[in-house]
Design a protein that fits this description.
Layout: H1 2-20, H2 24-37, H3 41-60, H4 65-98, H5 108-147
Helix pairs in contact: 1-5, 2-5, 3-4, 4-5
């Protein structure tokens, strides 16, 4: 969860503001390169792993009332971030890729205009939701460490 929250945060506070300073052709080219490069096993393991491991954790802690709500909250928060990624950011990425080579595209400014503002806004939402999920998991871990497993005396 921390890896994905950090990735979305890095985009929100540094990558996208830096790209905003670029001309339209550079902006489109760099985002196309990022969209291509991020499709790798390490990213997919982190992106899907955060969802699956949080779901497994929620299932395993279903009998622990002090902890389960925090983990379930994290699952909901990350589930929303995952949903927004699939429903909004990925289709925007695909449309950007379909625009073709920005060096030969007649109007990279219109390609950028369709992409930039919605992608940036939804990335901030994803970053906030993932950070929330990370905080909820940290709270759950703290409570779990303090109270132990259900039925555990200590």
């Amino acid at each position: 969860m921390g890896l994905i929250a950090g990735l979305f945060y890095a985009f929100a506070c540094s990558i996208m503001p830096a790209l905003a300073r670029s001309d339209d052709r550079v902006y489109v080219e760099v985002m196309q390169n990022i969209n291509d490069a991020i499709q790798n096993p390490v990213f997919f393991l982190s992106f899907l792993g955060a969802l699956l491991l949080t779901a497994v954790c929620a299932w395993q802690l279903r009998g622990s009332p002090r902890v389960r709500g925090w983990v379930f909250g994290a699952l909901v928060a990350y589930g929303l971030a995952f949903l927004f990624t699939v429903a909004v950011n990925i289709p925007l990425n695909d449309a950007l890729m379909d625009a073709g080579d920005p060096a030969t595209t007649a109007d990279p400014a219109s390609v950028r205009e369709e992409f930039e503002d919605p992608w940036v806004a939804w990335n901030v939402v994803r970053a906030a939701l993932c950070t929330l999920a990370l905080g909820l998991l940290a709270r759950a871990l703290t409570l779990y460490g303090r109270h132990g497993r259900p039925g555990h005396q200590g």
